[in-house]
Amino acid sequence: MSSSSLPTRQRLSEVRYEIRGELARRARELEAQGRTLIKLNIGNPGAFGFRAPEHLQRAIADHIAGTDPYTHQQGLPQAREAIAAFHKARGTPNASPERVFVGNGVSELIDISLRALLNPGDEVLLPSPDYPLWSAATILNDGRPVYYRCDPDNGFLPDPDQMEALVSSRTRAIVLINPNNPTGANYPKSLLERIVAIAQKHKLLLMADEIYDGILYDGHQFEPIAPLAGDLPCLSFGGLSKVHRACGWRVGWAVLSGDPLASGDYHHAMDLLGALRLCANVPGQFAIEAALHGQDTITPLCEPGGRLYEARRALIECCAASEHLQLVAPQGALYGFPSVVGAAAAGFDDHAFALEMLEHEDVLIVPGSSFNVPYRNHFRVTLLPEPAQLREVFARIDRVLARRAAD
Ligand code: PLP
User: Fold this and answer.
1) Is the pLDDT of residue 353 over 80?
2) Cα dihedral 203, 205, 210, 213 in deg (nearest 10)
3) Band of the pLDDT at 296, cuts 50, 70, 90?
4) Ligand 1 in contact with 43 (CB < 6 A)?
5) What is the pLDDT of residues 48-57, one digit of tens each?
6) ipTM
7) If you measure from the C-alpha of residue 23 to the centroid of ligand 1, how many angstroms do you get, rounded to a whole number?
8) Closest ligand 1 atom number to CA of residue 334
9) Which domains does the chain have, with CATH numbers?
10) If you measure from the C-alpha of residue 313 to the centroid of ligand 1, how many angstroms do you get, rounded to a whole number?
11) 269 C-alpha vs ligand 1 centroid, how far in Å?
C-alpha cells in the first residue's frame, strides 16, 4: 500500500470470491481484445438464454406504477404471505408472514442473518466446499468459519460425527447448503435428522441455504430441513434467482421457523438490520406470489430431454470418458465439481490450470480451492450452457490435461 492510498478493512485480506475475481477480470480484458470466451464461472441462467417466466415479468409490469414508495423492511405483506404459505405447505413449523424477511437476493440475507447473530470470535460451522459468500460474510461479521468436510469419497456429504466434534462453546450456527453449490450433493432425510439433533443438543441456529430447492436430477427429492427441526430456530433461504431464472431481479427470502419464544431477540435483530437498509428492491417483490404458484419454473428442464438434464448428462459422459477426470455426479443444483486424477494430477495447481484454460482454450472455469477446500485438484463448471457447448469445453479440458499428463 502506498502512503497515499486509502485504508481498507483488514479482514478483507481473509476474504475470497474468485467466481468474480482475478480470472473473471482477465476474461474481460481478453474479451475487450476481441476473444470469444465460454464463461462457465457464474450460475447465472439469464446469461445462457434462460428468461424469467412471462407471468412473473407481467406481475412486475402490472405493478410498477405502485412501486415508488419504500415498503416494510421485511418485505411487501402479500409477498411475505405467499412465502409463509409456501413454507407452511412444506411443513415448516411456525412459518408466518411476520417471520419472513425479503432481501436483495439471498446474498444480502446471508450477510444480515450472520450480522444479527455473531459477536467477535463466534464460530459458524460451514461446509467445505462452501458457497464462498458464507465464509466471507462470517469473516466480515467478525466470526470464524469452522469447516466440516464434505468429501468426494462420501458423495460430498458431511459426516455428522465429525461435524459434532467441531462444536465448541463459541459455536453459534450450523450452515448447510442443500442442494449444494458447488458439489450438487442432495442431503438425505436421515442425514438432516442427525444435523438437527446436533443443533438441538448444542442450541445452535440452523441456517439452511436452499436456493436450489427445485433443481434435482434422476428422481432425487429435495428434503427441507425446517420441518424436521420442530421448535429449534431455523432460517431457510430461498429466492427467485435460480429456480425462477431471475437472478438480476435480486429477490431472495429467509424464513425463521421453530419456537418464536426461542428466537424473539434474533427476530428483532434481523428486523433492525433490515430497517437500516430500508427495504429490498420493491418491483421484484411483486413477482414472488406469482412465482410460488409453481408454474413455469426451471424444474422440468431437469428431466430427461430437458436442457439442464442433458447438460448434466454431457458432464457425466465427458468425465467418464476422460482418463484424467473423476466426478461425483451432481444430484441437484447447477454445477459440476470434477477432480483431476492420475498422471495429470501430479503437481496440479487448480489456479494455474484455470488460467491456462482461459489464456489458451478460451474457457473460464472456477478453481476448486475458491470454495474453501484444503485440496487443489478440483474445478467448477456451471451446467447452464447448451450440452454441445459443454462437450466442447470438456474436449478442451481433456486436451490440456493430456498435455500435462505427458509432460
Ligand atoms: N446461495 C448459494 C448457494 C448460491 O449459489 C447463490 C448464488 O449463486 C446465492 C446464495 C446467492 O443468490 P442470490 O442471487 O439470491 O443472491
Assistant:
1) yes
2) 40
3) confident
4) yes
5) 999 999 999 9
6) 0.99
7) 20
8) 5
9) 10-51+299-406 (3.90.1150.10), 54-291 (3.40.640.10)
10) 24
11) 22
Q: Is 253 in the pocket of ligand 1 (CB under 6 A)?
A: no
The pLDDT tens digits of the residues spanning 377-394 come to 999 999 999 999 999 999
> Ligand 1: which of 83, 241, 288, 366 to mutate, most ligand atoms within 8 Å of CB?
241
pLDDT band of residue 294 (cuts 50, 70, 90) is confident
Which residues, other chains included, contact 148 with Cβ-Cβ below 8 Å and sequence gap of 6+? 125, 126, 127, 128, 158, 159, 162, 163, 166
Residues 405/342, Cβ–Cβ less than 8 Å: yes
pLDDT for position 295? 83
What residue has cell string 475475481?
21
Q: Which atom of ligand 1 approaches the CA of 251 most closely? A: 15
Atom of ligand 1 at shortest range from CA of 106: 15
Q: In a 10 Å sphere around its CB, with 0-12 CB exposed, 13-18 middle and 19+ buried, how is residue 230 labelled?
A: middle
Per this entry, what is the length of the chain? 407
Does the C-beta of 387 come closer than 6 Å to ligand 1? no
Name residue 253's amino acid: W
